[in-house]
Design brief:
Layout (H helix, E strand, L loop, with lengths): L1 H13 L23 H6 L2 H7 L3 H10 L2 E7 L5 H13 L4 E7 L9 E10 L4 E4 L10 E4 H8 L13 E7 L6
Length: about 180
């Protein structure tokens, strides 16, 4: 559920209108339960999500269902310089976010693919801070840009239906002016 957790964090940070949650009343927030609905079911069925997680394109699709601008970038179709530029710009712009899909083992962690938001960039060390959604196991971690890009430039699934992993740049949708 790392993809769902990452989406929830971003939607709440953006202030997108969330469904009512009686357990949090009077506040309206997204949770890992209420972020999924009949529209997101068309992007990725919850039964599939529970079994195998979600792809980069499905992250973008679920964000779009909630009215957010999501630009999906597969690492194989990008470059480390393009990633650095786009991610730095997003993190420096209020209301913009970046979610990364990477292979944990490629940055020295256990297990397979993982999804989490980026929290910051340090130009002096050329590192990004991953705000890991599995904080019970992994605290936030600074990762060298080239190492993170290599970890994203891996196949997303054994059958590679979605191509390489990568990143999603998220921005609020601005309503057109009359």
């Amino acid at each position: 559920y790392c993809g769902v957790a990452s989406i929830v964090i971003v939607l709440n940070a953006l202030g997108v209108e969330a469904p009512a949650t009686p357990e949090h009343a009077p506040y309206r927030i997204f949770t890992q339960t209420n972020v999924l609905n009949s529209q997101t079911e068309a992007v990725v069925p919850q039964a599939v999500l529970l079994r195998q997680g979600m792809t980069l394109d499905q992250i973008g699709g679920i964000l779009a269902v909630h009215g957010v601008a999501a630009s999906v970038h597969h690492a194989a179709d990008s470059s480390v310089d393009a990633f650095r530029l786009l991610a730095r710009q997003a993190l420096a712009t209020p209301g913009h976010y970046v979610i990364v899909n990477y292979l944990r083992s490629a940055i020295g962690q256990e297990r397979g693919g993982h999804i989490s938001p980026l929290a910051a960039y340090d130009a002096d060390s050329d590192r990004f801070l991953i705000l890991d959604v599995s904080r019970y196991k992994y605290p936030p971690v600074w990762v060298a840009t080239e190492d993170l890009f290599r970890a994203m430039n891996t196949l997303a699934e054994p059958d590679a239906l979605d191509g390489s992993r990568g990143f999603v740049v998220i921005a609020p949708v601005v309503s057109p002016q009359p």
